[in-house]
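lol ok so funny story. i was supposed to be doing the assay writeup but got distracted and ended up predicting the structure for this chain instead. priorities right. anyway since i did it might as well share w the group, maybe its usefull for someone
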Amino acid sequence: MNKKVVFFDIDGTLLNDEKKLPGSTKNAIRELQNQGVYVAIATGRAPFMFKDLRDELGINSYISFNGSYVVFENEMVDHKPLTTNELIKLEDAAQKLSHSMVFLDHIGATSNREEDPYVSEGMGSLKLPYPSYDPYAYKTKNVYQALLFCEEHEELSYRDSHSHFDYIRWHPYSMDVIPSGGSKALGIKSLLKHLSITPEHAYAFGDALNDLEMLQFVGTGVAMGNGMDEAKAVAKFVTKTVDEDGILHGLHHVGLLK
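and the output, tada:
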């Protein structure tokens, strides 16, 4: 029998809008693991942001930073940090427009401003504290993802003038900054190679713009009922919402659970 693996996004997929994990989802993942199905997380979050969730679910492998940091059984197997020189240029442009930035590695986050309501709102939506203030730390360490805080109508100048990076909006006030061409799909490709599993035997559950490539890359992409229309359009199946036991329902529908 071919080994199978399921990748789960976090926000809007494993967790509901209140960042709560439904009991049905936790039980479904435990049953998958008991049946020998490999389970991994695929998220835009940094590893330190979801350690408690990994511990609760017993998951030790994950795609983080939208594909830029790949871990198998608690060991990093692939990573793609942002180019420091280009990041310095981007941060300088953001400073001139009074737009804050947050810089993330696998351990923690730093901000280039001590106070910003957009940063507070964005990080607060993830139930996370305001990052520590250190405007220069990003120049001397690997940064796997940055957060650029601006509104949608202000983002075009970055996309046009700093095309060395890709930008994925995840909040009305913030965008993820990732390596050009980066995606969860590339991280999944790397982990599948490590596991000697083909995309045909991979499944993914997601709901948002940063899940589109992932949902299309795996053999079976499942969009959440609460997901964005773009995600539903590229998925092979649309399940119920998080709070309607969408994970459990989807796993039954694709035949991974009886």
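Residues 50 and 212 are 21 Å apart (CA to CA). The mean pLDDT is 96.
back to the writeup now i swear
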